[in-house]
Amino acid sequence: MNAHALLDTDTPGTVRLTVEQAENLAHGALQHIGFTLAEARIIAAHLIDAALCGYRFAGLPRILTIAEDPRTQEPRHAPRIVHETNVSAMMDGGNYVGYYSVYRATQVAIEKAGKHGFAIVGLHNSHLSGRNSYYLELIARAGYAGIHVASAPPVVVPIGGRQPALGTNPIALGVPGTPDPLIFDMGTAALMRGEVILRKRTGTPLPDGAGIDATGAQTHDPAAVLDGGGILPFGGYKGYGLSVAIQAMCLMAGAALPRGRVQDYGFLFVVFDPGLLMPRVEFARQLEELKARIKGVPRQPGCDEIRLPSERAFREREQRRREGIVIDRAVHEAIAALAAQ
């Protein structure tokens, strides 16, 4: 494939890594931070998948965020179920980073849905879980439909407010499909906090309408947003309302249990077998018809394709497996320094 067809442009400020190189780099850095190799592999798989899918801020740069988070240095214990029924589980994440503990909660949800057709799983005492769609893809490829919402400490300001009161509070929905599941994942903030952090690391300004500084004035400076300011909601009052609802839903996942704070991390899954509502083959047929009808709509001038949610990410993932992952050189050097210690 010639250079002009590459998905990502190489510049003096970037480094291109093969998947194997990215794995080795991530495993070394995460072990230095304090994770076992088995834990590092689970965390790194999520980060590298994000990079492969085209979400640079959610990829390897998150290793630096994990390393800088004070909770990473606090004591941990293995994630465990603290309350359980046949179709539900409340889990204590053990103060593990969510890339590991929420992955474990996903496995519990899949196992319970496999036995009983339905599962609801909540997890608390954790942090920094990454892309909701990663967990929904695991669920959907196992044959189940799912909804996943996550809350976090305040970094997003409410409409009309000058200080943060909400997390970036993503929501994801997924259903099994052929050859790939149909997954939609969105944050309810104008930008995810991870992207604001990456823009600060790389000196990249924020777009219009993304954040405010400590005085309440809109700003393009990511440092000002992170230092006493806040991120604005996505889509005005609609994103704000959805964010409030997610923060409330995650109270049922135990968000307030670890530290007595109602504005904290919580992770909630609802997972079920489509066969509970209709024959699975009929759902599969109807889904394919729906997708075909959407993609078959007459297109606007200049539009060569109508894409479905996650279609771009799945397509680009396969291309980047061949081409490699591009990350900012400053980020690569910082992670390499961690891994070398």
Topology readout:
Blueprint: E1 14-17, H1 19-33, H2 37-52, H3 61-68, E2 80-85, E3 88-97, H4 98-116, E4 118-127, H5 132-141, E5 145-151, E6 171-175, E7 182-186, H6 193-202, E8 211-212, E9 218-219, H7 222-226, E10 230-231, H8 237-249, E11 266-272, H9 280-295, H10 311-323, E12 325-328, H11 329-340
Parallel strand pairs: 3-4
Antiparallel strand pairs: 1-12, 2-3, 4-11, 5-6, 5-11, 6-7, 8-9, 8-10
Account of the protein in words:
The longest helix has 19 residues. The chain folds into two domains: 95 residues, Malate/L-lactate/L-sulpholactate dehydrogenase, four-helix barrel (Hypothetical Oxidoreductase Yiak, Chain: A, domain 1, Orthogonal Bundle), CATH 1.10.1530.10; 153 residues, 2-Layer Sandwich (Ribosomal Protein S8, Chain: A, domain 1), CATH 3.30.1370.60. Strand 6 and strand 7 form a beta hairpin. With 341 residues, it is α+β, with helices and mostly antiparallel strands. It has eleven helices and twelve strands. Helix 1 packs across helix 2. The model has no long low-confidence stretch (mean pLDDT 96). It is globular. It starts with 13 loop residues before the first strand and ends with a helix. The chain has a seven-stranded mixed beta sheet, sandwiched between helices. A three-stranded antiparallel beta sheet has the order 9-8-10. The protein has a two-stranded antiparallel sheet with strand order 1-12. 44% of the residues are buried. It is 40% helix and 19% strand.
Structural class: alpha+beta
User: Could you list the spans in which at least 5 consecutive residues all have pLDDT below 50?
Assistant: none
- Total beta-strand segments: 12
Tell me, rounded to a whole number, the average pLDDT: 96
